[in-house]
């Protein structure tokens, strides 16, 4: 009998490998000084397959990690599975669960809006969790959300409205959602696109939303090559759709762009009749054998001329981009990103971009492996970058993780605080700061 050992994929080994124990540890050890203005919880989500196996990095049950910080102390670390019906039925088939909006892996992001903390995954409904990461249940906005919701809704930095969308393998392929700052879903608007594509994220500005209809199309053939039912199909074309925030399908203006894929934008904003959209652009995605790295690009949509210009802003490989919450959809000067380690989607450091001055700073993690960097504004600060950048960082030499607190005003310097965790936090996806009184 011949044995052929298959190489273990990156998402199942080293610090990508899942952890199986739910841990609670209080009174965490801290090196340095945590600013007394930081009062809340740093939460982060990721795929953590309870079986130990998943066919793709994006699959696997969601596990939340959280650290509560108050009055300069780190009160606790917790990790908890998001206990959706998919988690509670380990034999459930992921692909046949697509039509049941409660069968979420809830593994991609965690946000707060209108007093709720929600774990999100783009194929299903959000799942509400408690301050202490216990699962409460699915949230469909009082029955108004019939289909899926993206894991990347946008909370307007000015109004607090939650703007989002969902995509589907059947018509309507794309649906827009507008939710008030108080959490009432006010609009559910089917949007006409040519076919079923994977739309991971989108953009908002003060008056508009911008959809990214890009050529990663739904195709079961993709299961064989990538483990996901989507493939790169350049013949689909690539378009940006601009719609007033309270508009309808008939109001969408579509702009052709060069074929590409974008998982994550940095931010978007209006400059007169132009719309600036900064994104982590990949030449392609979900193409068998190819691995196109994301880099920071700027699109400028000229609504008068009907054109889109495209400019590369940096040649570093970056993703997991973030801005200060108060400038989401508004003009931002600064942006933060994970600077990826060679061949792996983890941060070997963080970037702070000054987009007004076309400059950047690098925070070197010196062998640590970082997650998404979350900017938290200093309530006493005036400038957009007055605040701190927080992230979970894995330390291979200890096989444990820590939360680093970097002062954004001295970004390339050592963290001002390190919160030492009792365990490792696997490399994951997205997270947020949830302040007290959220
Ligand atoms: Fe994402």
Q: How would you summarize what this structure contains?
A:
The chain is built from two helices and 33 strands. It has helices at residues 85-88, 222-225, and strands at 24-26, 30-32, 40-44, 63-70, 73-81, 109-113, 116-120, 127-129, 135-138, 154-155, 162-167, 174-179, 185-191, 203-204, 208-213, 216-218, 230-232, 239-244, 253-256, 261-271, 274-282, 295-302, 307-312, 318-322, 334-340, 347-354, 359-364, 369-370, 374-377, 387-395, 400-407, 417-420, 431-435. Fe (ii) ion is lined by residues 108, 151-152, 200, 263-264, 429-430.
- What's the name of the CATH homologous superfamily? YVTN repeat-like/Quinoprotein amine dehydrogenase
Helix content: under 10%
Q: Residue-averaged pLDDT, rounded? A: 95
Each distinct ligand: fe (ii) ion
Report the C-alpha radius of gyration, rounded: 21 Å
Broad structural category: mainly beta
Would you state the CATH class? Mainly Beta
What count of domains describes the coordinates? Answer: 1
Treating each run of at least 4 consecutive H or I residues as one helix, how many helices?
2
As a percent range, the share of strand residues is 35-45%
Q: What overall geometry do the principal axes of the alpha carbons give?
A: globular
Task: Supply the CATH architecture.
Answer: 7 Propeller
End-to-end separation in angstroms reads 60 Å
CATH topology: Methylamine Dehydrogenase, Chain H
Largest β-sheet summary: 6 strands, antiparallel
Overview of the structural elements:
It is a single chain. By secondary structure, the protein is an all-beta fold. The chain has a single domain, classed as YVTN repeat-like/Quinoprotein amine dehydrogenase (Methylamine Dehydrogenase, Chain H, 7 Propeller). Helix content is 2%, strand content 42%. The chain contains 2 helices and 33 strands. The chain has helices at 85-88, 222-225, and strands spanning 24-26, 30-32, 40-44, 63-70, 73-81, 109-113, 116-120, 127-129, 135-138, 154-155, 162-167, 174-179, 185-191, 203-204, 208-213, 216-218, 230-232, 239-244, 253-256, 261-271, 274-282, 295-302, 307-312, 318-322, 334-340, 347-354, 359-364, 369-370, 374-377, 387-395, 400-407, 417-420, 431-435. The strands form 8 sheets. Strands 2, 28, 29, 30, 31 and 32 form a 6-stranded antiparallel β-sheet that branches. A 5-stranded antiparallel β-sheet has the order 1-5-4-3-33, with no helix packed on it. 47% of the residues are buried. The model has no long low-confidence stretch (mean pLDDT 95). Fe (ii) ion (FE2) is lined by residues 108, 151-152, 200, 263-264, 429-430.
